[in-house]
Amino acid sequence: MEKQKTDILTASATSANLSEGHSATTFIFTLEDSQLLSQVLQIINVAELQIQHIESRSEFGASLTMMLVVSTNGNAATGLKMQIQALTKSPVEMYSNSAKMTNGERDSAGAPPEQLDNYPETAREELQAFPNVPWFATTMQELAAHLGKTLQSGDDLDADHPSFKDEVYRARRKVFVDIAKAYKLGDPIPHVEYTEEENKTWGEVYRGLTKLYPTHACSTYNKMFPLLVKHCGFSDKKIPQMAEVSAFVQSRTGFRLRPISGLVDFRDFLAGLAFRVFNATMYIRHHSAPQYTPEPDICHELLGHVPLFLDEEVAQFSQEIGLASLGAPDEWIEKLGNLYWYTVEFGLCKDKDTGENRVYGGALLSSFGELQHCLTDKAFLRPLETEKAAATPYPITRHQDVYFVAEDFQDVRNQLAEWLIKIPRPFMLRYNAYRESVELLYKKEHLHALVRDIQTDVKTLVGTINKIR
Ligand SMILES: [Fe+2]
Fold this sequence. Notes:
The protein is α/β, with parallel strands linked by helices. It has two domains: 9-145, ACT domain (Alpha-Beta Plaits); 173-420, Phenylalanine Hydroxylase. 48% of the residues lie in helices and 13% in strands. The strands form four sheets. Strands 2-3-1-4 form a four-stranded antiparallel sheet, sandwiched between helices. The chain has a four-stranded mixed sheet with strand order 8-7-10-9. Strands 5-6 form a two-stranded parallel sheet. Helix 16 (386-390) links the parallel strand 9 and strand 10. The longest helix is centred in the C-terminal third of the chain and has 25 residues, at 444-468. The protein is elongated. It starts with a helix and ends with a helix. Mean pLDDT is 84; it is low at 1-21 and 98-118.
């Protein structure tokens, strides 16, 4: 019962504290005897502190639950807490709106402001309690710094690569490696002057694939693609600039593109998704084989993936895969890799409009041959089951042995969400878009924050239903 009392005021504490500006601390405590209130006020008076807000509740019995917002912070607040605790002989909850959480600023979680005595300030600090969890970036800054260190060179092409003997092409790939290595997440993406030959290769790929999309791509893809024609100049004439594409996608779903020089470590790739950062190559495949590339290139990124990153549902489940990967054990990263492969890269779904099987996977949407193959009788299709997909290894150099068909994107998202919570990790994670950082969820206080968010959503839902009526 005691806990319930303080819970009720914790929500008020959040809003009261946030509305009072800098250097305010909220104290929540229980008085068994209301006479003690005058003594609490006297302590505050003697300390020459100012009360900004006072609130009491007594619905649950004779005792009084108090919330006081006082103009103080730091050591003075801690001292005050100890004095109140000594007087009331019961625990005192304390929250502060430090400079991090200033007037009018609010985190997306609606979480209580940091507790001064035992509440770590950042996920990085909290992670010290979990030494066995693999390292992961907790903020956009950490992500940027880490990616900058782990980028592979990307210009050491294998002997069976179509360009292996083409020195000009190899030198050109080096240019893209240098761009990717010099790039810092958050900086403007550099303008690239593509050569005539590169634009010609793009044109061939573009014309070939766009002929197939109306009959092979899912309806969401076909609805999004014209937006890229309109806003980013997609055409068969020249390769679009990644900077323009990234800015447009960011304006729609918050996803941004980050130039990379070639393949990145899969854990790092997934970590980017958690922050709505999509690592994408800028170079184009060799002109001798426009219908084939052994590795991702700009055709794969811009034609295969980008149109669907404009869809909120796809953006959401892509980010959820990314969040699930943070701190996951290695063997689970492998399973997650399979799931990513059979959904985001090679996924099929039932078309909303026609009921036919259609493609939403980026690897298929950027591959002439397999895009056609997967919808023929020769392809083996089965309904999406995350458990099976996660346990199915995939071939890289030939068509897939199996394709998983989802009912729709909601089905993908629901199934992924159910599977992702099985990952053994001592916490859940969620992304705070305001702070561009992740939050660890593993304590009772975190439950309060989540419940408050749900309550807010329900209120919005009810309000919207009323508007519709
Ligand atoms: Fe891809």
